[in-house]
Design brief:
The strands form three sheets. The chain has a seven-stranded mixed beta sheet with strand order 1-9-8-5-4-2-3, with helices on both faces. The chain has 15 helices and 14 strands. A hairpin with a 2-residue loop joins strand 6 and strand 7.
């Protein structure tokens, strides 16, 4: 998945341009920067990439989710439905705003199960946050229908799925707001960075102000700018944006490499009857950042994982016991291990985690193996890897 595997002259040129210019901050210092605006240029490129009217760069993918929720008015006591399979940043962003994460089961897409979402909606539900994990998508038509029916927000976290599409639309552009991450291990990277995208001008203006201490960015004197409402610091730097600006120009090349490597491995594993693949909703096209497949049971997965490791097959995961991406081991959330007091409202709202049954999610996650698709593999290396993986799985079965 990481674009950092293919750093080159373009990234160096953009970074050196910032260093030579001397302005590392994305706002202000107009007279010094001689017309160089890397963050603005990257936002413009991303508008085209995401077919979105508005893009606001921020400091990380986690910041993107936090800013997106805040921009749409999600706050204290609101409930946000999110999947059991995601990164911990999902509930961190929700709780940072004083809202309550309501976890719902996934299905064979490895994304939110629409039936579970429908059952989780209450009078306090403000948003559904769908997370497009491992390069693919949940059933977006069904989730959008539910959101529209109940007049609630659909927030799309596509941090792991840049380049994927659903019915011709880029993932991230389908919900009311979309979120992306450009950290060091994403398909394109800024080192650290993220973006909020939307077609809603009000949400965009809110995101623009909120991510920079409430600055309204009107006029050319930063110190004289007004502060219409409270904000925080989620700014990206010009250095980070410069790396991303180079990387986004190479995105299509990266996606072609991912697709080639993905298809070689998938075709080899598809010959094994016991191997099945995650469901991609009709009209969906994966970004091919990961290849996800299912085996008959957890015991088989554990055996295959063990033999992969013993035989030098790297960059794969089973998330059942993973500390960071699946509800089962999120004990710091379940036990509310916080450095500071959690509000009574959030504490009460999370009591359901002590008894909630997520066996439907367990069924899919326990049988899943997720394989990272590297950009640095040669075609022959991928073919050798695919052949080895297929042989090792057959030996276990």
């Amino acid at each position: 998945m990481p674009g950092f595997e293919l750093f080159g002259d373009l990234e160096r040129k953009e970074v050196n341009d910032v260093l030579d210019n001397g302005v590392l901050m994305r706002y202000g210092f107009d007279g010094m920067r001689n017309g160089h605006w890397k963050a603005k240029a990257l936002e413009s490129e991303l508008q085209n990439t995401f077919q979105s009217k508005h893009v606001q760069l921020v400091s990380s993918g986690t910041a993107a989710v936090s800013v997106a929720l805040a921009a749409a008015g999600v706050g204290a006591g609101d409930e946000v439905i999110m999947p059991t399979f995601t990164f911990v940043a999902s509930f961190e962003a929700i709780m940072m705003l004083g809202a309550i994460p309501v976890l719902a089961d996934i299905d064979d897409t490895l994304g939110l199960n629409p039936e579970a979402v429908e059952n989780a909606i209450t009078s306090k539900t403000k948003a559904i946050m769908v997370v497009q994990m491992c390069g693919s998508m949940a059933n977006m038509d069904a989730l959008k229908t539910i959101a529209d029916k109940h007049n609630i927000l659909l927030i799309e976290d596509a941090c792991q799925a840049i380049g994927g599409t659903y019915k011709g639309k880029p993932l991230g552009s389908i919900g009311d707001l979309g979120c992306f991450s450009f950290d060091f291990v994403k398909t394109i990277t800024c080192g650290e960075g993220g973006a909020v995208i939307t077609n809603n001008k009000t949400y965009y203006i809110n995101a623009d102000h909120y991510s920079d201490h409430g600055h309204d960015h009107i006029g050319s004197d930063r110190g004289a700018e007004a502060h219409p409402f409270l904000g925080y610091n989620f700014r990206i730097s010009e250095l980070h944006a410069a790396v991303g600006l180079a990387q986004v120009k190479r995105l299509q090349d990266f996606l072609e490499i991912q697709k080639r490597n993905f298809n070689i491995i998938k075709e080899a594993l598809a010959e094994i009857p016991e191997v099945t693949f995650r469901t991609v909703p009709e009209g969906g096209v994966e970004s091919c950042a990961f290849l996800n497949f299912f085996l008959p049971d957890l015991e088989t997965v554990n055996k295959v994982s063990k033999t992969f490791k013993e035989n030098g097959v790297d960059a794969f995961w089973n998330y059942y016991n993973n500390n960071w991406h699946y509800i089962r081991e999120w004990h710091h959330l379940k036990d509310l291990k916080s450095l500071y007091p959690i509000s009574t409202e959030v504490k009460k709202g999370l009591e359901y985690l002590k008894t909630k049954d997520f066996s439907k999610s367990d069924y899919y996650i326990s049988r899943n193996i997720s394989c990272l698709i590297k950009l640095s593999w040669t075609e022959q290396e991928v073919k050798d890897r695919a052949s080895k993986m297929a042989r090792l799985i057959k030996n276990v079965l």
